[in-house]
Amino acid sequence: MLTTKFDPLKDKMLQVLDPKGKVVDAKLEPKIDDETLIKMYETMLLGRTADTKALQYQRQGRMLTYAPIKGQEAAQVGVAAALGKEDWFVPAFREMAALLYKGAPLKQLYLYWYGNEEGNHFDPDLKILPISVPIASQINHAAGIAYASKIQKKEEVTVAYVGDGGTSHGEFHEGVNFGAVFNLPMITVIQNNQFAISTPRSVQSKAKNLATKAVGYGIPGIVVDGNDPLAMYIATVEARERALKGDGPTLIEAVTYRLGPHTTSDDPTIYRDEKDFKDAETKDPLIRFKQYLIDKKLWSDEKDEEKIKEFTDYSNKIFKEVEETGLVDLDDVFDYQYETLPPHIEEQRQRAKERGGK
Amino acid sequence: MLTTKFDPLKDKMLQVLDPKGKVVDAKLEPKIDDETLIKMYETMLLGRTADTKALQYQRQGRMLTYAPIKGQEAAQVGVAAALGKEDWFVPAFREMAALLYKGAPLKQLYLYWYGNEEGNHFDPDLKILPISVPIASQINHAAGIAYASKIQKKEEVTVAYVGDGGTSHGEFHEGVNFGAVFNLPMITVIQNNQFAISTPRSVQSKAKNLATKAVGYGIPGIVVDGNDPLAMYIATVEARERALKGDGPTLIEAVTYRLGPHTTSDDPTIYRDEKDFKDAETKDPLIRFKQYLIDKKLWSDEKDEEKIKEFTDYSNKIFKEVEETGLVDLDDVFDYQYETLPPHIEEQRQRAKERGGK
Amino acid sequence: MAVMTILGAINHTLDQQMEKDDSIVLLGEDVGFEGGVFRVTKGLQQKYGKDRSIDTPLAEAAIIGSSIGMAMNGLKPISEMQFSGFMFDGYNQLVSHAARMRNRTRGTYNLPMVVRMPYGGGIRALEHHSESLEVLFAHIPGLKLVIPSTPYDAKGLLASAIADPDPVIFFEPKRLYRAFKQEVPEKDYKVEIGKARVVQKGDDITVVAWGALMPEAIKAIKLLEDQDISVELIDLRTIAPWDRKTVVESVKKTGRFLVVHEAYTSFGPGAEMISVINEQAFLYLEAPPTRLGGADITIPLPKGEHHFIITPEQIADKIKDVVKF
Amino acid sequence: MAVMTILGAINHTLDQQMEKDDSIVLLGEDVGFEGGVFRVTKGLQQKYGKDRSIDTPLAEAAIIGSSIGMAMNGLKPISEMQFSGFMFDGYNQLVSHAARMRNRTRGTYNLPMVVRMPYGGGIRALEHHSESLEVLFAHIPGLKLVIPSTPYDAKGLLASAIADPDPVIFFEPKRLYRAFKQEVPEKDYKVEIGKARVVQKGDDITVVAWGALMPEAIKAIKLLEDQDISVELIDLRTIAPWDRKTVVESVKKTGRFLVVHEAYTSFGPGAEMISVINEQAFLYLEAPPTRLGGADITIPLPKGEHHFIITPEQIADKIKDVVKF
Ligand SMILES: Cc1ncc(C[n+]2csc(CCOP(=O)(O)OP(=O)(O)O)c2C)c(N)n1
Ligand SMILES: Cc1ncc(C[n+]2csc(CCOP(=O)(O)OP(=O)(O)O)c2C)c(N)n1
Ligand SMILES: [Mg+2]
Ligand SMILES: [Mg+2]
């Protein structure tokens, strides 16, 4: 088992591809069909492109606060690719690439950051939860979903994401422990991007790595190179199998680096170490995965340029659609408070309409 | 270091005295002067006696809800005896014996359960915090106190107690982690008495022991026989030294068993296993510590009977005083809300007085 | 028909609903094997199994947070906070998620979930065991809050809460758990959420109360029997959304209003009712709409609790004050 | 005298107080090195060191809970909740401990601590970044809640909050952080907690507002300039304990009352003021005391936030309604 071989107590990190895209241990290399490999890379590339564009829109004053994923694409797509359609995905708020892979339309992801609740209005068949802003609280939702899967004997796994900062929060503790105690089909992925806004990882925990927390919950944990999609993939496949077999949850720490700002309101140059940052850039997940596909003759630099152009156009087109949706209707902010709106709120709606609200 | 030798990952338990009071490893036996040994035992015995009496008073309808300590005396006195006068003690709510050792008057401990806030009105020189009912929340107070000690360069350690149930709570996680991250002079003692009301320890965590949680915080942890006052003592001495040296916090799991009900409103026979209970009775901390002192010629059965009689009378006398204090004055429930009572609350007090409140 | 206490009625209703609907699960600290510290859920784990009557770790955010997840994946969780004073750790889940999931997802996910909690004082309990925190739920859009004062209503309101497609907070007046019995129909019936009950008709003053203070209000009216005061007594039953219509109509008739609650007075639930009466019945008022609430002090431990508890005498005096204004 | 924004005044006050008193420490998420996400504490770690300006783990219960411990052991902690919508994890510490420690220990321990949090909407922010949760603090005995609306008051109220021997919640109207500047004296001065400020005298109606809505109320009055309405405008400044005397005296004079707040209307802060006015000025009332609050809906994301935000026009219309009643 990977979680035994890469026991977090040994402080070793699971890696399949090195930063240059070379396979470090052929025995670990997963057998993924070409189509899926290409889908994985394309989703990472779409994620990267849409991310870059979102930042641009924001700088142009067209997009609101946005939380970039740059550098974290592998930590997301590697997991999503290992999931079935039937599995649940419970995001924090910085998982755009995983959501895209899971089938969320880019339009909705943009809509959300554009400030419209329609962005969280996913097709229920996607089994995606809405973005969760209160840090770590979503892990408890994942535990509940997984509990329901278990007792209703549904063959499905729930994956929840949380940041390195989130691991310090009480809700992380309660949620992961709940999953452990009831042996739930659940995977918690810590996207350790080294920062919680300006606060470095070292302020969150004195432990060598965050996956050691698994020990205290009595569940398997593993530290994975979060910039390596194949390592993330195999760690997830194993965790998922364990979950489906009834062997309970797994805690995966994806070690990555946030190459962008926390959000568009943030200036990372204030607090990050320039050398660390430069070093992190050389470990960019896209570089290594592209090289891996090129070596496998599944990709080329020309193709890459072509796709970036395509995705850029696509992002622009989608964002234009988003901008055309304009403001949220008055009815929309009232209609979903309850199934049946209580009379006094109905009156508030009417008064807002009389004032000319639409 | 004990925490290395008894690394919780090895799932070994630190013990000095076996259930019969024999020293299991002479190298571990601490050199405690006779006076202190006797004070330790006498405090355990006073705790036991006052506890038995409190249950009786309650059954006679004279005492309100009370949370007994029976079986947990060593887990408390072993720690308290290792502390200095300058150290802080942060209780949960089931630490009567530790509080007695730390200098809290029995009268106040009784007054608290009798339903009078005066019971928490300790002399500040005792450095005891009031009883904390919201589970695990007190650990964050301990972290704050220890932070203040550290940056004010006060040579003092803070000990916080929590139950096995409390380890599942978010506040446990946040508080212990805060202490770890800032390397604070703080010791967290988990009194694992096997139950949180009716809920068995196994429902709180899937891990083999609760001290393994230390691993995830990057601090030393240790599993100690909580019915062995000498084991608790040496574990605390070591943790305290570490704390004073600036080497940060320690997590101690004291493995014990709640021989009484959760509180006087509870009937443990519903949920506890009779065999486990009988077995736990044979591990009673008083039995073994008495024998140890007898073997050391510091105690005798006659002395024991004499002391029990003395402590019984003492408890009766104190409880009589408590009963004589009667109801809480009206002014007392208003006076301490703020340093200066806002006018509208002052009016509420006046109205209550006009209604005849005293 | 069987004669039941409030506690018995809740247990019976949980049983009846769980029997009908296997998507219902109970969860909370000690709710399973032992049936809760008050024994409200007694026997249900034995009958429905551990999967559906869950002893959880001591973790309120996990209890409410996992309920949310369960509700999103086909279950109808009914969780228990052991005492309302211990719900704080779960409060974030209620405010930030339970209240918002339907709106946040524009209807993809609604949350059929109930959170039960014993509330209120008067049982000589330890600190944090006596809170009346209505406002903390009533102020939050997306939540509902109901509080029965009789076994009949306990059953009917709980059945409605369980059937409700949105999250409902169900406060249980622990002081009344075993205080009295009432005939409760065996059949499955509902008491509508959002509808008050006129306990007694009257012309001089409208008195609104709920939960643990209903019996005290009734006693107060008894104390006034020899006075010539005709009281219209309303059991609000639902605090959010409360039945403005019934209350306002009543005040339009009586011209006088008193609301009685154990919650702290300042920024308390009564203030809301007074505000609405001002908005909707100002010209009918013959005296200032008035409240009698708990003092703005930490609820004292038992030996001082009498300074806090609201008595029938105090209610009667306040009624007289308002009528004599 | 220097010209400052509200944000600048808070930073300057923290600096001035920390310089005077080394027992003051700042703590919270990102408050140290970076100076907070709004830069309110900028430069203070550089000046006073890491021990006194602490970047904490992401854990609100630890932030407030450890503040309590610090306050018991000789420090004066000033903590920051990054946004008030994220304080829930720390709310238990505020309600169950900060508010109660003095009473619980009958005076052995008091807690000189301040909890700062930006509150309110109107900055086109993400979910949970726009809450106005006054009631959650004002309803709890043992806490105080202050909200400045000007740089001058921000300095004076913060200085008072720091000097206060009891816990004070300090709401910062983030919408106004950098909205305008005002002359702020360099010297250390205080604005008394519990004292409102009469912004403008008037005879026809008393309007009460605070924090982020003060500028809107002032604009509303401007909009009414050509109408013959004389408004007495009061900046409440302290929500708990609020200045009943100033407000009630004003209403006795004007006979009319409007309170404006962004908090949800139902069970909102305005209801409390209306209740007290009923109790203390009923016979002076010429119109129902009225509130204009946020709708009882989850605060919408930016593209729908305008449906929620209270505008000067709405305030002006409401003033007219009350005066014309
Ligand atoms: C409970 C809570 N506290 C504070 C915040 C404000 N906040 C938003 S993101 C963030 C940092 C999160 O760090 P991490 O968990 O590492 O996730 P990342 O942003 O790196 O993806 C903070 C403090 C919040 N959203 N929720
Ligand atoms: C936050 C919170 N939730 C629930 C309770 C109710 N309660 C009181 S004691 C207890 C069990 C505590 O178990 P444990 O931590 O093991 O301590 P023990 O009682 O065994 O000493 C519970 C659930 C509480 N006091 N606080
Ligand atoms: Mg991070
Ligand atoms: Mg226990």
Features:
heterotetramer, A: 358 residues, alpha/beta, two-stranded antiparallel sheet, C: 325 residues, Rossmann fold, 2 domains, five-stranded mixed sheet, binds thiamine diphosphate
Overview of this structure, please?
- The complex is a heterotetramer, with two copies of chain A (358 residues) and two copies of chain C (325 residues).
- Chain A has 358 residues and is an alpha/beta fold.
- Chain A folds into two domains: 2-327, Thiamin diphosphate (ThDP)-binding fold, Pyr/PP domains (Rossmann fold); 329-358, no CATH class.
- Chain A contains 15 helices and seven strands.
- In chain A, helix 5 packs across helix 13 (301-325).
- Chain A starts with a helix and ends with a helix.
- Chain C is an alpha/beta fold and 325 residues long.
- Chain C folds into two domains: 2-184, Rossmann fold, CATH 3.40.50.970; 197-323, Rossmann fold (3-Layer(aba) Sandwich).
- Chain C has twelve helices and 14 strands.
- In chain C, strands 3-2-4-5-7-6-12 form a seven-stranded mixed β-sheet, sandwiched between helices. Chain C has a five-stranded mixed β-sheet with strand order 9-11-10-13-14, sandwiched between helices. Chain C has a two-stranded antiparallel sheet with strand order 1-8.
- In chain C, strand 10, helix 8 (214-223) and strand 11 form a beta-alpha-beta unit.
- The longest helix of chain C has 15 residues, at 6-20.
- The chains are: A alpha/beta (358), C alpha/beta (325).
- One magnesium ion is lined by residues 163-165, 193, 195-196 of chain B.
